[in-house]
UniProtKB/TrEMBL annotation, chain A:
The keyword Transferase does not apply. GO terms for molecular function: transmembrane transporter activity. It is a multi-pass membrane protein. The chain crosses the membrane at residues 5-22, 28-45, 57-77, 83-102. It is found in: Cell membrane. Keywords: Cell membrane, Membrane, Transmembrane, Transmembrane helix. GO terms for cellular component: plasma membrane. InterPro entries: EmrE-like (IPR037185), Small_drug/metabolite_transptr (IPR000390), Small_multidrug_res (IPR045324). This is QacE family quaternary ammonium compound efflux SMR transporter. The keyword Zinc-finger does not apply. PANTHER family: GUANIDINIUM EFFLUX SYSTEM SUBUNIT GDNC-RELATED, SMR FAMILY PROTON-DEPENDENT DRUG EFFLUX TRANSPORTER SUGE. It comes from the Bacteria.
TrEMBL record, chain B:
It is found in: Cell membrane. It comes from the Bacteria. Belongs to the drug/metabolite transporter (DMT) superfamily. Small multidrug resistance (SMR) (TC 2.A.7.1) family. Its main location: membrane. It holds the Pfam family Multi_Drug_Res. This is Multidrug efflux SMR transporter.
């Protein structure tokens, strides 16, 4: 597996961390860790997006981020598992991924002019 | 209230993405300040909403509105293509957001 894909998976894990941090930070240290995770996560995602197709990179990143947050809220924060919610989040994800794949992987028109 | 701030957070995220586009057109301080303010305000509002709404739902809606908003701004102001597939996926995201509001 390519080094860049591993970087991207790591970025998605950090993404889940900072989202949890935004919801549950309660003192200076937890806020600092949250902000550091946010910065590194986005930095990694952007640098990978410069090497691999940006639309695909973003789609994978958001997909893993969403899966991660949904799984953590059920496993660690006592949210109940509801089918209708999971299905709607999946539909939303299909929408985002589809949108990113049809728009962002094409070279921009007139970029060279 | 938490739903309102969440939607606003998504819109500000889209605004931040639009400012990234704008930077590629013209690089100036005003755009950079707007970009940082947009993303900053977006995160603050998302943080507020996350205190009340389930993590996965809030995160998915925030990114969804961000991506849809960013794409629409791109279509209207930066001449990105408006093919039917993009419009279909935008509709799908919006329906899912409404659905999530209804089931929660």
């Amino acid at each position: 597996m390519n080094r860049n894909w591993i970087k991207l998976i790591f970025a998605s894990v950090l993404e889940v961390f900072w989202v949890i941090g935004l919801a549950h930070s309660h003192d200076l240290w937890t806020w600092i860790v949250t902000i550091i995770a946010l910065i590194i996560s986005n930095y990694l995602m952007i640098t990978v997006g410069q090497v691999l197709p940006a639309g695909t990179v973003y789609a994978v990143f958001v997909g893993l981020g969403t899966a991660g947050t949904v799984i953590s809220e059920i496993l660690f924060f006592g949210e109940s598992f509801k089918w209708e919610k999971i299905v709607l989040i999946l539909l939303l994800l299909i929408g985002i991924v589809g949108l990113k794949l049809v728009t962002a992987n094409k070279p921009k028109k007139g970029a060279e002019s | 209230m938490a739903w309102l701030t969440l939607i606003l957070a998504g819109l500000l995220e889209a605004f931040g993405v639009a400012m990234i586009n704008q930077l590629q057109v013209k690089r100036n301080w005003k755009t950079i300040v707007l970009l940082v303010t947009g993303f900053g305000a977006s995160l603050l509002l998302l943080g507020y909403s996350l205190r009340f709404l389930p993590l996965g739902t809030a995160y998915a809606i925030w990114t969804g509105i961000g991506v849809v908003g960013g794409t629409l701004i791109g279509m209207v102001f930066y001449g990105e293509s408006r093919d039917w597939r993009s419009l279909f996926f935008i509709a799908l995201v919006l329906c899912a957001v409404v659905g999530l509001k209804l089931v929660s």
